[in-house]
Predict the structure.
Amino acid sequence: MQTIVKPALALGAAALLSGCGSSGGTIAQPFTSFSNVPADGTVVITGEAIAANYTQNLVSGEVTITSPSGPNPASLRSRFASSVPQDVVIEAPSANASIDLASGAVVPISGRRIVAVSADGRTVYISEDVAPAYEYQTYGTWLTEAGTGSGAVGAGSFGAQTPASSLPGSASYSGSGLGFARDAAGQGFYTDFDVAATTDFSTITVTSSNTVAENVTTAATSAVPTLDFSGSGSVTGNRFSATITSVETTGTASGTFYGPNAEEFGGTFDTSGPGGVVHFGAFGGQ
């Protein structure tokens, strides 16, 4: 997949994650909330990720994506200096990624998305530029070996999980998500969309809407309502899993609740359909 990077603008790297830091030391510490991220130090946010390998014909732009695997346990680590992230390091099965923000670029892309690119241009991490910022989670998508013809793509949800004993009686969430897609013609796309969910913490419904796709080769964007998904499922402990369908795909959305009392929710999804159509990614809401 080619890296889609527009001219760099003055944008704070802190927008890649969902908060600023408080004072703290330099030893890596578990994540509890963005209010407690050290101004100078390292934080590790645990979560889950879906990953796949891809190949791309650099002339025609045609993309092949292997069947995504996961979600599997993953983590996002970031070192802060004066409350600004200095790097993004993702550890995920078959899709590790690392970007030194001090030597790379952080630029806006397609309105509400932002992207961090490694200095060599081969590793890209995409996050949602949302307001208000999440307090207890972050999510994003990434790819490696951009522009070389083959590499890995991943999507992950990371945060401070709600203890099962602290779930409330019911909740509704709204937010957004990011993904990768391949259409039946073999073209690859970055996607973003709105997401909503309602739950009584026994069952859950999850719906996406307003999906927009950006061609990874041409940067052309278009609305793709045929990738909007919806479905329902169950909640077990502090985790949920739902069977989801769209006009073009079927699959699963799964994840967890974040914050002391499930103030937020987030997760990953993986769908596929006839003709080699694939759509997977990550989402969050509050």
User: Anything to note?
Assistant: The chain has a mean pLDDT of 87.
